[in-house]
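can u pls check wat happens w/ adenosine-5'-diphosphate
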Amino acid sequence: MIELQHVTKRYSNGHKALDHVNFHLASGDFAFLTGHSGAGKSTLLKLIAGLEPVTEGRIRVANMQLNDLSQRRMPYLRRKIGIILQSPNLLMDRHVFDNVALPLIVSGGYNYKEISSRVRAVLAKVSLTNKENFYPYELSGGEQQRISIARAIVNKPELLVADEPTGNLDPDLAAEIMFLFEQFNQLGMTVLIASHDLGLIKNFKHQQFTLVGGKLLHAQGTADKISTFVE
Ligand code: ADP
C-alpha cells in the first residue's frame, strides 16, 4: 500500500526533515509512527498523502507513483486516502453535516439519501450525532478533531493516515477512537497513525516505526513489547 525508497525531504529553507527513509506498509496493515516533536512525522504523512513533494527517492502509494503524479491524477489518490491532519482544516461557514459530506460530494456518484445515511453513521461512530447542524466554530477542539476523523473515514478509504488524531481528546475518547480505527482496519482499511502518546499506543498490538531526526527506525515486535530498533 505504501512504499518509500530512500526518500529525503528538504524544505525550501534547506531544512532536511527526512533523511533516506525506507518504509513499507502492506495493504491491511496497521502501524504507528512515533517520535519526538520535530522528528519528521507530519512530513512523512504529508508526503504519503501527496501534500508535499519528495526531494529525493521514490514513493508509491495505493499503486500510484507519487513522484510523477500529475495534478489531473491527484483526485484519484485523494479518493483512496483518508487524511486527518493536526489542524482539522474545516469549512467554518458550513455545518458539521456538510463538512463530513464533502468527500462524498467531491467524489460524486452518491445520491442525497446515501450521503445522509453515511454521514449520520460516521457522526454516530465519533459520538457527534447531535451536532450535525452546528458550525465548526461552535464546537470544542476535541469535537472539531472528531469531525475531521468522520470526514476522513466517510468515504471508506483504502488507506487512512492520521496525524496525532487523538491529541485533543480525553483518554477515554482517545481509546474509543483508536478502537474505531481498529474496526475499520478489520474491514480492510490500511491505517498509519502518527502519535507521540506512547501510553495510549502501548495498549494496541501493532507494529511501530519511530523517526529520530528524520531517520526512520523500525521496532522489532509490537508496540507493547519493543526490544530493539533497527534502521
Ligand atoms: P513532527 O511531526 O515529528 O513534529 P515535522 O514533520 O512537523 O515533525 O517537522 C520536521 C522538521 O521539519 C522540523 O524541524 C520542522 O521545523 C521542519 N519543517 C516542517 N515543516 C516545514 C516547512 N514547511 N518548512 C521548513 N521546515 C519545516
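Residues 11, 13, 15, 17, 35, 37-43 surround adenosine-5'-diphosphate (CB under 6 Å).
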